[in-house]
Amino acid sequence: MKAIVFDEPGEAEVLRLAEVDAPRMGDQDLLVRVHASALNRADILQRRGLYAAGPGASPILGLELAGEVQAVGQDVRAFRPGDRIYGLSGGGGYGEWAAIHEALALPIPDGWSCEYAAAITEVFYTANEALRTLANLAAGERTLIHAGGSGVGIAAIQIGKEVGAEVLVTTGSDEKCTRARELGADVAINYKREDFAKTVKERTGDEGVDVILDVLGASYWERNLASLNAAGRLVLVGLMGGTKVEANLGLILSRRLRVIGTAMRSQPLENRIAITRRYREWVEPRLINGTFRPIIDRVFPFREAAAAHRYMEANKNFGKIVLDVAGDG
After folding, report:
1. What is the distance between the terminal CA atoms of the chain, rounded to a whole angstrom?
2. Burial of 232 (0-12, 13-18, 19+ CB in 10 A)
3. Alpha carbon distance 179, 162 (integer Å)
4. How many CB atoms are closer than 10 A to CB 314?
5. How many CB atoms lie within 10 A of CB 26?
6. Which of 194, 223, 218 shows the shortest CA–CA distance to 208?
7. CA-to-CA distance for 303 and 305, rounded, in angstroms?
8. Which of 24, 108, 264, 273 has a 20 to 30 A CA-CA distance from 191?
9. What is the crossing angle of helices 174-183 and 151-163, to 10°?
10. pLDDT > 90 in the chain, percent
11. Would you state the pLDDT for residue 264?
12. What is the CA radius of gyration of the chain?
């Protein structure tokens, strides 16, 4: 099959379209003809050699995929060839064919394109787990969502509003602030022009927020803690701003703060199955009825994966970047 691969870690230019072996299918797997995949920061890190594929996972990039089932393992009962599915795999989305465990696959609802379905799972799974499962965000609370123009940020804005929380976000431009407000954000902060911690204090009457969803890590650490109210929860879902901090444990102790880390890719299979189930029970119905929606910023042809990576690294996108796998190659 054809797939996007790289021989050595590096910049986006290392990505190339090549012929590789098709994936092997386990007894509980589906073999899927991939129609669309979507970019995630994990793809960037893996390409740079900073985030290896998990044990048993495909080394090919691409966690989100949507396509058509071509064959099923001998123990599969829920799907059959010809079914359209989408899901979050351990890798392989940047290939014409991919294998995914049947418990991680979901039928594509009527009316959804593969491109639309491919833009959903990683971001809505992450936002749902961070805000609802781990932080227990409740109606009447306040949440600060960093990277409000990212796929995760956009999903989190919608989930936060549906829960009944007041939603504050940070983004890197006035245009993205406007679009975040259009999605429901109550306060949008351009972090390039404002100190978000100061603005949070001003907008909340010096109280701070109950929950922070952060993708930066070290570079926002002190300001995140300063932005939390008593018993506030900081959920780390990314470390784009570094991994090492000097922690004021006295502040965490005296204000009863909680710091929670989570990463989708490193979860064992049973956890990922449970995450998929929680998504299907609470999030997917709201996507089907139009309460929630992914935002697709741009669709790139399969062979232009390097250009898609450069576009993401330049932070030009508001929403998801999708690869049209079946339409080119």
Report:
1. 10
2. buried
3. 18
4. 8
5. 16
6. 223
7. 6
8. 264
9. 40
10. 93
11. 86
12. 20
CA of residue 305 relative to chain centroid, distance:
18
HEC letters along the chain: CEEEECCCCCCHHHCEEEECCCCCCCCCEEEEEEEEEECCHHHHHHHCCCCCCCCCCCCCCCCEEEEEEEEECCCCCCCCCCCEEEEECCCCCCECEEEEEHHHEEECCCCCCHHHHHCCHHHHHHHHHHHHHHCCCCCCCEEEECCCCCHHHHHHHHHHHHHCCEEEEEECCHHHHHHHHHHCCCEEEECCCCCHHHHHHHHCCCCCEEEEEECCCHHHHHHHHHHEEEEEEEEECCCCCCCCCCCCHHHHHHCCCEEEECCCCCCCHHHHHHHHHHHHHHHHHHHHCCCCCCCEEEEEEHHHHHHHHHHHHCCCCCCEEEEECCCCC
What is the Cβ-side half-sphere exposure of residue 202, based on CA atoms within 13 angstroms?
A: 9
Kindly report the average pLDDT of the chain as a whole number. 96
Mean predicted confidence (pLDDT) in 232-246:
93
Q: How far is 227 from 249, CA to CA, in rounded Å?
A: 16
The whole-number pLDDT of residue 328 equals 45
Query: Do 64 and 35 form a contact (C-beta atoms < 8 A)?
Result: no
Q: State the pLDDT confidence band at 75, using cuts at 50, 70 and 90.
A: very high
How far is it, in rounded angstroms, from Cα 124 to Cα 293?
10
Q: Which tokens in the block code for residue 26?
A: 């386990």
Least confident stretch, 2-11, 181-190, 277-286, 319-328: 319-328
Residue 85 φ then ψ, to 5°: -135, 160
Token digits of residue 1:
């099959």
pTM, rounded to two decimals: 0.96
Look at residue 266 in the predicted model and tell me its pLDDT.
82
